[in-house]
């Protein structure tokens, strides 16, 4: 069973999602940390060290697939991934788990963080506001 849990200030007691204005400005893009390069790939259990980063548009279509550019970094992979995602105009990152440094770097850049499991394409669609 796929599970999605909103993190940080986006979780309200009523279960509704509120996203800061900057996170969804322009075209909404959702990145998913994935175990492979295809939309059907499983969501990676880890975020910053995931093998691939998939980027989906507002309709849930896969628009970009990249080997994770920071996965092999010796240190600072979380903040480096957050910076790269900001350059790609991503508003939300989906992964199995988030390390503390990545979670803070995402928050600093107003990028949402959503935990999920299952196929990347399904997780991206469920992560939309």
Task: Characterize the structure shown.
This protein has helices at residues 77-87, 100-108, 120-126; strands spanning 4-6, 30-34, 52-56, 62-67, 92-95, 112-116. The protein has 129 residues and is of the alpha/beta class. The protein has one domain (4-126): Dinitrogenase iron-molybdenum cofactor biosynthesis domain (Nucleotidyltransferase, domain 5), CATH 3.30.420.130. A six-stranded mixed β-sheet has the order 1-6-5-2-3-4. A hairpin with a 5-residue loop joins strand 3 (52-56) and strand 4. Helix 1 (77-87) packs parallel to helix 2 (100-108). 32% of the residues are buried.
What is the topological layout?
Elements: E1 4-6, E2 30-34, E3 52-56, E4 62-67, H1 77-87, E5 92-95, H2 100-108, E6 112-116, H3 120-126
Parallel strand pairs: 2-5, 5-6
Antiparallel strand pairs: 1-6, 2-3, 3-4
Helix pairs in contact: 1-2
Please sum up the structure shown.
The chain has helices spanning 77-87, 100-108, 120-126; strands at 4-6, 30-34, 52-56, 62-67, 92-95, 112-116.
Comma- or semicolon-separated keywords:
129 residues, 3 helices
